[in-house]
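Reviewer 2 asked us to include a model.

Predict the structure of this chain.
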Amino acid sequence: MSLLMLLVMSCGCVFHPPAPLTPTLPALPDTWAAPHQITTADSSWLPNDQRIHLFNLIQEGLANNPQILAQRAEAEAAVQQAISAGADRLPSLSAALNGQRSHTESATATTTALSLDFLWEADLLGKLDDQARAATLAAERVFAEYEHACLQLAATLARSWFTLLESDDQVKLISEREDNLINTLALIEDGYHLGLKQPLDLFLARADLATTQARLEFSRQELGHNILALEQLLGRYPLGALSAQSPLPRNIPFVPVGLPATLLVHRPDIRGAGLALEAANLTTRAAWKARFPSFKLSGTLGNSSSTLSDLLSNNEMAWSFLAGLTAPLFDSGRLKARQEQQEHLGTAAGAFYTHTVLQALTEVERLLGDSVHQRQRRTHLADAVGFASRAEELAFEQYQQGLVDYVTVLESQRRTFDARTSLLAIDADLIRTRIDLLAALGIFPVSIDNIIQ
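Predicted model (structure tokens):
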């Protein structure tokens, strides 16, 4: 006992363990600061066939996306690392069979040795338990990061799918305008040949049609790019074979957002940051305990002989057993520096946890605010479409009566088309914001309802 006390005193360790680090978080309010509707889940805005199709796309992406597969493999590797770290707490037993042949001028000798070696470090202070638990938490953190990556991929796939629908609707909208311009041009050409229309009207109509046709080709190009991007996310060869099976949904309902405090539980990246902080605290404590004496037991059972048949002879077997207590006396401050290094890493983990929480809260607040402004813009754009359409009808009627020139007709048509295009874009933005908000709230896509509810 006196020897143990001498070793403890001579190790120069600090007897007070390092205090665990806790993050500093702002006080969470009872509700979100940004205006939002308190509502229940409503998935009726998306037809059932679209729901099923989108669900299948998400499942395909989660199963085949290379980046997700890589993160899954890293998570599985972290589990094996945790198992390896936990094995350090248990005794180890190894067998060795060695052979030696020596030669002198007078004789040649052959010696064969067989041994069983035993080694175990008694975890008196719980250092190995701390290291094993830290490795387990590290594996859980990697799995939380994998879960967060799955959530982000599901949201990205949903956004990409609705962007594809938007592009397809945009192509249809421009094609409709092209048809209208072709019909208008035919009327003007007939009037021109009859001497009723001016050459200016004819060239303006032809120029507007050519511009629209160029825009149509560009929209088709963008649609092709969106298809290839979605196929890549799915892990498919980019054949460009996907197609929009339905128009973009309209009249998007509000999202049930819950309370700010629930974000700490639902967001996988926040859980991962919290696990990293717990692991850092355990690693710091293990580094502190490493500065104290350690107690190890070792033993050997074996024999050596010039013939193999004598190796297993019981009366020839020998054994040895050793118990040892070791303590660091002088290591140039290496163990103390390692402890302080882990303390600094723990401080960094705590700051990163706070950053992750603040970033998540900011994402939700920003998306809630975006949703409000987007809905107000949609109301104004819907009014603009109605007014512009009526103005276009009146302009064309007055042009046929010779009351206005063709430039007025072109301007009214352009305004109607721009308003319809903007309305389509804002509906797509509302859907993408909805998906981003669900992802920011940490709703994992266990089912498709969690993405589009």
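The beta strands are 92-103, 108-122, 294-305, 318-326. Residues 360 and 440 are 7 Å apart (CA to CA). We have added this to the supplementary material.
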